[in-house]
Amino acid sequence: MVVKSNMRKYRTFLNSPPAAVEQILLQLGRNIRTARLRRKLRMSDLAERVGVSRYLISDVEKGKPSTGIAAYVGALWVLGLIDELRYVADPDHDTEGKVR
């Protein structure tokens, strides 16, 4: 029974994430799309280089919360934009965590 309850919460988060999460994913998707277009890549070109389907890249560009993080990271890597990810959740910049 506990497993079902946890699964229900998980699906709810993916189907209806908090507004802040949704906005970040939408912006990330738009940024990836803009970078792809600036490089004159078709969705299928990016998908092939990442090793996923064109449909998954479409989901990335839409900022779908159910899309795995590896798809987002793969797209960023192919586009040459992965370096900034090293700073996400960097313990040295976690001011709240350092206080505790």
Question: What descriptive keywords fit this protein?
Answer:
single chain; mainly alpha; 66% helix; 0% strand
Task: Write a structural description.
By secondary structure, this protein is mainly α. The chain has six helices and no strands. Helix 3 (43-50) crosses helix 4. The longest helix has 20 residues, at 19-38. The protein starts with a helix and ends with a helix. The model has no long low-confidence stretch (mean pLDDT 90).
Main pleated-sheet profile: none
Q: N- to C-terminal separation?
A: 35 Å
Topology, number of strands: 0
- Total count of helical runs of at least 4 residues: 6
Order of helices and strands: HHHHHH
Strand content: under 5%
Radius of gyration: 16 Å
Indicate the overall shape.
globular
Overall mean pLDDT: 90
Helicity, in percent?
A: 55-70%
pLDDT < 50 runs, ≥5 residues? none
Structural class: mainly alpha
Assembly level: single chain
Summarize, please:
The protein has 100 residues and is mainly alpha-helical.
Produce the secondary structure layout.
Blueprint: H1 2-15, H2 19-38, H3 43-50, H4 54-62, H5 69-78, H6 95-99
